[in-house]
Protein 1
Amino acid sequence: MAYWLLKTEPSTYSFADLVVAKETRWDGIENPAALKLMRSAVVGDRALVYHTGDEKAAVGECEIVKAAYPDPKSVKLVVIDVKVGKPLKKPVSLAVIKRDPLFADSPLVRQGRLSFVPLTEKQWRRIHELSAL
C-alpha cells in the first residue's frame, strides 16, 4: 500500500464535498509529474485530502477505489476514483509540516505546485500524530 496527498482548492472541491458525495472522480490534475505519480497509484492506496489556497492544510482521509484511467474530458489526462475516509482530528497546516524534519525532502515541501504528492508511511503517521496534538 502506498500513501498520497491530494491537493484541492476547497472552493472548487473540498473534503466536506467528498463527505457528502462519499465517492468521486478525482480530476483536474494536469502537471506531468503529478500525472505520472497518479498513474502509479493502485486500489487500496490511502490518501490525505489537502486544502490549498488560504487554508493550506491536510484535513481528511480518502482511499483510492479505482486506479488511473483516461479522463473522459481529455485523452491527455488521467483520473482516479476515491472514497471518503475519516476527517483528521484537526487540520495540519503546511507551516507545521514544513517545521517537521521528517518532511524536509518531501515533494510537499520542495515542489509546492505538485498536486498529487507521495508520502512515506512515516509521513502519513506523522501527519496523524500532528493532527492529534
Protein 2
Amino acid sequence: MTWQLDDARTEVSFSVEHLMVATVHGRFTEFEADIVLDPDQPERSHVTATIATASLRTDNAERDRDLLSPGFLNADAYPEIRFVSSDVTRLDEQTFLVRGDLTMHGITRGILGRGRFELLEAAPRRVRFILAAEVDRADFDLTFGIRGVLVGKTVTITVNAEVSEEPSAPA
C-alpha cells in the first residue's frame, strides 16, 4: 500500500564532527518520497526518496554556502540526493534494517540503515519511524578536510518521519 509522507512531521538531518571536538548538525528542508509500506510485513516495504541538495541548512549562512559550493556538495551540478531501498529486514516488532542505494555528488553507493517504527493511529493508519545511516563521505568524493581532520569522514544521516495511508481513490 502506498503511504503519504507528512512533511510537517518529517525531518531529514545530518551530523558530522568538526575539528574533532564539535558536531555540526544540519537538515534538508525540501524532500519527497514514494513509500510502499506494510507495517505487518516490513520486508515487503520499499521507498524512493529525493532530497533537494540546495535545501541544506545548518543555521550558518557562510557554512551553508561552503557546503553547497563546488568544493563540497556542488548543488548546481548535483541538485538531488536520492535513495532507493533494495530490501528491508525486520529485526523485531519495531526494529528494522534497510539497505539501498544512495546517490550523492553524482556517485551511487550501497548503504545500510537501522530504524524503529511505531503505529500511531489505527484508522487511518499512521506510522512514525526513525532511520539512521552512517556514510563515509569519501565514498562520494566529498574529501575536503579529511586529511587535516577539519571535518569528520563519517556523516550520520537521520530521517525522522510520520507517514499515513493514502485514501483510496474514488470508484
